[in-house]
Amino acid sequence: MLNNIPSSLNLRLIRSCPVCNQEYRQSMIQVLDESEMGFLTYATCSTCGANLLTKFSSLPQGVIGNAILTDLRAEEVLEFADREVLTEDDVLYIQQVISKKDLLNSIKKIS
Ligand SMILES: [Zn+2]
Prior knowledge:
- The protein is an alpha+beta fold.
- Helices cover about 30% and strands about 30% of the residues.
- A four-stranded antiparallel beta sheet has the order 1-2-3-4, with no helix packed on it.
- The protein is elongated, with a radius of gyration of 18 Å.
- Zinc ion binds near residues 20, 45, 47, 48 and 50.
């Protein structure tokens, strides 16, 4: 939960579609995830169909929002959110794979 700002006020920050400028109705905005760190919302524009994913984070300086357009459905966003967090070992492994010359073959082996 965000301590000092009610969720309804934050949702009002998402006003209109960045693609076609259609104003969002609050019912079009889903809250996908909420924690003490902030929350994640997903809105689909009824006019152009663009999906906007917005993450609000509660920091000591105030609330910060990041928004991106996505072609993922809300369920797919949650699937990715549930995946395991990358570890340092994962990053080192990727670094090693990228630095090899046979990168394409490595990718083929993984998939
Ligand atoms: Zn739109």
